[in-house]
Structures are given as structure tokens and as C-alpha cells.
TrEMBL record:
Name of the protein in question: Mechanosensitive ion channel family protein
Span of domain Mechanosensitive ion channel MscS: 187-255
Secretion signal, residue range per the UniProt entry: none
Database matches in Gene3D superfamilies: 2.30.30.60
SUPFAM superfamilies listed in its UniProt record: Sm-like ribonucleoproteins
Length: 413
């Protein structure tokens, strides 16, 4: 083709001194035009045809080839390959230009092949995330490591083309730079080791709720990458944590709560000690009306009567007699109330215990699990239960302790 261009220019009466540079310029323009036309056809005709075929299939993996732009990246290879293949036909008389374009074409092919392989790895990762039930495999970190290796190889090939040396020559020189490479890629190496340990020990998986206060993280894990872990907090902010920190520092994983189907409620009610006393007959008669206390009161009163008869005690005011207390009866009521509550998990621990008396009264601690782990529903269940207990405590002649306020002093005045 270059000879034809030169003959045409010579026949046109162009000076022999200008034939070679002009023919090289014309060949260069024609070469670039052919490359651009090839890309335009591949981009706007071939790819559209391929997209139509892919969208009509029932498979999902081929849709990922489009969404990850695999075909788009491959289309960039066509002009680079044509540039490399057609240069001898169009600009063979200009070796400097041929060498320069050869270098550019080979570097472009190497980098574009790397980008295409990277897109294919994205497709593999997406297929794995959609189809696999095992979330603990460190595929995301592995794919990132493979991408790093692919781009590293492409970079070495590009440099070898640029300096006109064999890639083996560059690889042999990397051995002397081992310490430098370890320093540069130390975070990557630590991240890879961490991702393997996280996977092997099943410490964290995407979708887990974790807390890591030292990094301001409290929310769902979005992604476990080679170097970082993304956590979406409950205020919709995203916190980035170094992957290695998950094995070098402590964190809380709420996965057990989510998988168990029960969420713990542990909260106490402080009772004013001065309001604790034995139950009078009038109070017992009033408490007998509580449905949850019938069996408890009947059994307790029978046990107390039997004990007092064995001791020969007829007067309940006798200090040696056994009697029911209002706080003990209230504790029994709370336990019975929780056991029948529809939102309390019956297969998990449920108890009411009395804690050590302090300057703010004696606390009755409720320890149980709700059967709804949704955060909003969980808070509603907890509030409803304690609303009821705060309101019903005065019926047991108990006072809920709180620090005196201005209203209390005004009422006393």
C-alpha cells in the first residue's frame, strides 16, 4: 500500500524529496482512519447486535458480561490489533514511526487485555455472590489479588516493550527489590492474610452487623475487600476499616443474635427500698385479682400456712412467721407476665433477678429475649413491657426510685 501511495504521488508530479514523508503521512492517516472505523463498527454495530442477542437469552451470566462492560473493553482491542498488523503495509518506509506505533500498539494491547480480564473477574465475582450460599469464602479479596497480578504482569510487559528488553530481564531484577516490594505491598499482604483467616474462622461475612467503636463502625458489612472492609452504619454513613484490623483488634459481631431469632433485653427497674414491706391481707386480696398471680399466691400461701402451722405460729405479726413481700410478689408477677407475652422468646433464657441494693434503691433486673430481632420492633417491644411495669408497680405499693426533682420538692412544700 505504501508503494502504491508513493507511485501515485510520483505520478502526480510531487518532488522526490517529499514523496517519502508525504506518503508516510497519508499512510498514517489512512491507518488511523481504518482503526477508527473498525472501532466504530465494533462499538455501534457489532456490540449492539451482541447486546440484543444477550438480552433475549434466559441466562443471567451473559447479562453480567454487558453490565461489567466486558464486550466494551474487548472492542478496544480491535483497533490496537489492526494498528499493529497493518503498519507494514501503510508506513513501512518510515522505520522510526513504525517503531513508535508498534510500542504504542503493544502497550495498548497489554493494558486492554488486562482490563478485559479484570472485567471477566468481576463477572465471576458477581456470579459467586448471587449463587453461592457460603459467604465466608474470601473470593472478593482473591479476585482483587488476581487483578493486581494481572495488572502487574501487563505493566511488566509494557515496560519490556518500551525498553526493548525481555520480560524475564525485568523479573530477574525484581528479586533484588524484594524488600522494597514487601514494604510497598505490606498492606496488601497483610490484607490477604487477614481475609484468609477471616474466612477460615468464619469471623465476618457480608451482611453481618458488627460494632468496632475504635473506628466508629456500627452497622452492616457491605464488602470485605483485600485492604479494606466497608461498613454501612445505621445513620447511612460508610466506615472503612483496614481488613487486618479485624484480626488484630477486637470487635463485636451480632450474627449470633440474627441467626438465633432472638434479641436480648437486659434492663432493670430501681425500687425505692422504703416502699418494700410485707403484704397485708387487703393487698393480697387486691393482688388475687391478677390473673398471672393466682397460682403463685395460692401455692405460696399454702406453703406459708403449712410452715407456720408446723412452727405453731398463729399470729402473722410474730417475727418468726413467714409472710409474702410486695417486692417478691412483684418479681413473680413480672416473671409470669414475660412468660405469657407473645413477643418474648420462650425457648431462650427468661428470668427476673434482684440485684445488690445501692444508693438508688434495689434493682429488679429483667433478662429475656424478644422473638423479633428487627431493631424498630425490638425497641417497641422493650418500651411496651417497661411502660406496663412502671404503671403497675404502684398497685403492689411499690415506688419506682428516681432522683428528686424540683416538682418533688414543690409537692412537699
Amino acid at each position: 500500500m505504501s508503494e502504491l501511495i508513493q507511485q501515485w504521488l510520483t505520478m502526480g508530479g510531487l518532488s522526490e524529496r517529499l514523496v517519502l514523508p508525504v506518503s508516510a503521512a497519508i499512510g498514517f492517516v489512512l491507518l488511523l482512519t481504518i482503526c477508527w472505523i473498525s472501532y466504530y463498527i465494533a462499538k455501534h454495530f457489532v456490540l449492539k447486535f451482541v447486546h440484543k442477542i444477550v438480552t433475549k437469552t434466559s441466562n443471567e451470566w451473559d447479562d453480567l458480561l454487558i453490565s461489567q462492560k466486558v464486550f466494551d473493553r474487548i472492542s478496544w482491542l480491535i483497533p490496537a490489533i489492526l494498528l499493529l498488523a497493518l503498519m507494514p503495509f501503510f508506513i513501512s518506509e518510515n522505520p522510526q514511526l513504525v517503531d513508535a506505533l508498534t510500542i504504542i500498539a503493544k502497550i495498548a494491547i497489554a493494558l486492554q487485555v488486562a482490563r478485559s480480564l479484570s472485567a471477566l473477574l468481576n463477572v465471576a465475582n458477581s456470579l459467586f455472590q448471587e449463587s453461592s450460599k457460603e459467604k465466608y469464602l474470601p473470593l472478593n479479596a482473591t479476585i482483587q489479588l488476581l487483578k493486581l497480578a494481572i495488572y502487574l504482569v501487563a505493566t511488566i510487559l509494557a515496560i519490556s516493550v518500551l525498553i526493548d528488553r525481555s520480560p524475564i530481564y525485568l523479573l530477574s531484577g525484581l528479586g533484588a527489590l524484594t524488600a522494597v516490594l514487601l514494604l510497598v505491598f505490606q498492606d496488601t499482604i497483610k490484607g490477604l492474610v487477614a481475609s484468609i483467616q477471616i474466612s477460615a474462622n468464619k469471623m465476618v461475612a457480608p451482611g453481618d452487623w458488627i460494632e468496632m467503636p475504635q473506628y466508629g463502625a456500627d452497622g452492616d458489612v457491605l464488602e470485605i475487600a483485600l485492604n479494606t472492609v466497608k461498613v454501612q452504619n445505621w445513620d447511612n454513613t460508610v466506615t472503612t476499616i483496614p481488613t487486618y484490623a479485624l484480626i488484630s483488634e477486637s470487635f463485636k459481631n451480632w450474627r449470633g443474635m440474627t441467626s438465633s431469632g432472638g434479641r436480648r433485653i437486659k434492663r432493670s427497674i430501681s425500687i425505692d427500698i422504703s416502699s418494700i414491706h410485707f403484704c397485708s391481707d387487703e393487698l393480697l386480696a387486691k393482688l388475687q385479682q391478677f390473673e398471672f398471680l393466682n397460682d403463685y399466691l395460692n401455692n405460696k400461701q399454702n406453703d406459708i400456712s403449712e410452715f407456720n402451722q408446723q412452727k405453731g405460729i398463729d399470729d402473722i405479726t410474730n417475727p418468726n412467721s413467714r409472710r409474702l413481700t410486695n417486692i417478691g410478689t412483684f418479681r413473680a408477677y413480672i416473671a409470669a407476665y414475660l412468660q405469657q407475652h407473645p413477643k418474648v422468646h420462650n425457648d431462650m433464657t427468661c428470668m427476673v433477678r434482684q440485684l445488690k441494693p445501692t444508693e438508688v434503691g434495689v434493682a429488679l433486673e429483667l433478662y429475656f429475649f424478644s422473638n423479633d430481632i428487627n431493631w424498630a420492633n425490638y425497641e417497641g417491644i422493650q418500651a411496651d413491657i417497661f411502660d406496663h411495669l412502671f404503671a403497675i408497680a404502684p398497685l403492689f405499693e411499690l415506688r419506682i426510685f428516681q432522683t428528686p426533682t424540683g416538682h418533688d420538692w414543690q409537692a412537699r412544700a
